[in-house]
Each structure stands twice: as structure tokens, then as C-alpha cells.
Records
---
Amino acid sequence: MPDPIEGVVQRRQNRRMTDPTAAPLTAADLVALARAARRDPPCPTCVSLVCPGWEAMPASIARDALERVGTLRDPTIEEPTVAEYHPAGTHAWSPEAPIAPRWFPYNRCDVWRCGTCARAFLRYTEYGGYYNEERVREIDANRVVDAPGPA
């Protein structure tokens, strides 16, 4: 049986080889990555990253233990929206917040997976006035929504 994660990675690599402005990963790609990972318990490599909402990237994580799968950034949009998608009244820090790839902060995320168990994560850098903070969120297939971007 073909590995669904490798299918997503291979499609992404094929798009990049033929088009340097390849489309970002889709909501369907995120769902496939999340469902393909070994679920329980979290492996020792990525256990500190397993969180339902956004958290600061732990300093203790070996960053080379994660493999970059792709991006949600659209190369054709110079300045992605900072509007958030919360139709059920959630907020950015809510564990229940939807993962909407065309909305902030997802539209600025790269997609990573654990090299040991293939658990998938979103990562982005929050740029504050006096600091930069890398943030991480595990991809939960049940939270991914293919919502159209803001008008």
C-alpha cells in the first residue's frame, strides 16, 4: 500500500520541479498528513510539540528531527492577510480554533513532520516589537477547514 505522506511530499516536489512558484499545500494535503501519522502515544522525539493549539516552539526540541514537507504560503501573494478565521467564536489561542490555510497565521506557515513517527506540525514565526517567537501547532485533521480566503 502506498505511503500517503510520501504521496503528499512527492506531489509537492513534482510541482516545485516543474514550477518554481508551485502552489502551497492544500487543506486536503494537511488532512492526509495528519491522518497518516502514528497517533498514540507521541514519540519521544516530538512529544514536547504535541499541543492542540499554538505554543512557543520549545528550545529543547532538536530541530533537525523535523522534516520540512512544504508550505501554506502562496508565492503569488506578497503580503498575506492577517485576518483570522473563527466562525464559531474561537480565537487564535483556542485549541478548538480551525486550521484554515488561507487565513492568518496558517497562510504564513511551513508544514513539518517528525522524522520518527511522521506526526505533522505547523510552524510560523511571530514577529513582535522586540522579539521573534517561533510557534508550533500539531495538525489535527478534524480541525482543518478548506475555507475560502477573505475577499
---
Amino acid sequence: MKNLRIFLTVLLLSVMPVISMYGQVIMQHPHEEIENSVDTIGFKKVFLAGTIDMGNSVNWQKNLATYLESRGGKWLLFNPRQDSWNGEKKGEMDYQVNWELSHLEQSDFIIMNILETSKSPISLLELGLFARSGKMAVACDTKFYRYNNVKITCQKYGVHLYPNLEALLRSEFK
């Protein structure tokens, strides 16, 4: 009887699907649609605000997706960064700005990452718009030219401020 139980247990374990330790990450950019949005029910929606510099900065958004995948969970990342963006194309600026504002509103959480050498004027605008939302955390290099403005705004509205993205992730995604 004991051997039969062991055999059945081994058999059952061998046919059960393996549960991955890795999370599921879907990254959505402007002009991309999710084929079956029902598949994203239960996903935490995170907007990736911050330095892009017209595509000339480090792709921290891609690195963040890899990090979240390794942490587990289900993540839908709204990433405004586009591989090729043409602001001169008719209607593109309106589309981009409206896409960002809509997805900032739809998100459960906003990660803002402002890098030292960036100007990040749109990020500063988004900080002003969403600092009161209660769903934002900011990583801002202390050498950023407007760091004090960011720090004072975060203090006033209770937004958690970190010196870099790694510190933000360690604290916000324990």
C-alpha cells in the first residue's frame, strides 16, 4: 500500500505542469494593442515614466521588465518609449500625449525614473499631474539639474523619492 502511494505521488508530480518561478510581463508601447485584453485581468498595471531623451538614454524600461519578470507576478507595463518616433508626423504628437495621459490614469502604479544628465521636461510635467495620485514612486539622481524641485514636490505630496531605480525597486517591490 505504501509503495502504491509513493508510485501515485511520483506519477502525479510528473504529469503536473511545472509552476515557473518567473513572472509574466507584458510591455505595451504606443500604437500596440494587446490581442486579448482579458488575458491581462489580474495584472498589476505600471506606467514607466521618466527619462527617454528621444531614445538616446539607456533603455532602463527594458531592464525593469527583466527585473519584474525575475520577481514573479503578473505585470502589464505601459512604456511610452518608441523605437522610432516622428513628432513631425501629422497627429503623432497628439496621439503620444493622449496615450501617455490615458495610460498614466489607467495604471495602478507609476514608476518615474529621472536620470542625471536628462532634462526630462515631460517627466516633470507628469510628476506635477500625478504627485497627488497616491500611486507614484520616483527615482531621481541627486545631480539632476532640477533635483530640489523634484524633492520638494515629492515631500509635499508624500511621494516616495529614491536616489536611483535600484533603491526604488528594493523598497517598493519587496
